[in-house]
Amino acid sequence: MDIAVRNLRDRLRGALIPAAATPMTPSGEVDLDLVSRYLAGLVADGATGLAVLAHTGRGPYLAPDVRAAVIERAVACAGKGGVPVLAGVGGGAEDPAAQARVAAELGADGVLVFPSDGDRVALHEEVWRAARLPMIAFDLYTRPCPAGTLRELLAHPGVAGLKTALLSDAMGCQRAIALAREADRLAITGEDRMFGPSLLWGAEAALVGIAAASVGVTAAVLEAFAGKDLRAFEEASGRLDRLAQVTFTEPMEGYVQRMLWLAAAEGRVPETHSHDPYGPPLPAEERAVIVAMSQAAH
What we know:
The chain is α/β, with parallel strands linked by helices. Helices cover about 50% and strands about 10% of the residues.
């Protein structure tokens, strides 16, 4: 394992890394000053890392200049709080290796590599050669990774850890966590709907979309898990799970809009920039249910 990769792995152990949203208008316009305030608020409320331009941040849809500006704002914010920044690469029409090179030039600490339909090992090698930034591999429910391929990825010297987001595949999640730990890489939960269980299965850090707004509720689960009070962990995990039930549900792509609704309700973003123009339409009545559940969780 490359020494920089090892260092980031160790730095992220125990971290809560929100998969941050990118606040937008209905037409997709991004206010960068608002992005800065939003990211700073996540750190102030318990985030110990930041992941921008991931699926929650709609990274694959954003123009290169907007992507670069979001990374710049995240790095500036992280510098004040001393937290690492990961940038999502891939998943769209742009070249992931070129995106990783830009992320490195702008000061990101690592990249989250979106899963692809092609040769995933070759993709990670291209990204590594282009930027020499530590990589987080990504096992996603829409493109689950075969165990053999996971083993190859986890043997790559540039891979610091594996984020699993398999949604409802408990056995797949357990397998991925076990493989990451066996390879001495960081097992990172991205399981918004299996958050507490994934910690019990061995996940050592969290990179989750549900922390794009409810970062304090998410942080409470990690804090309780690190302690010795089983009842506190049970209660904190239950609060988060009840919130996840109404935010990470069908249509699943609607979760980004639901998290932006929560971000607006929590005062993190204004109503004008609480929109996801890339997701499916949602019934207006959902919003009241989600906000009420969030208030109960707090």
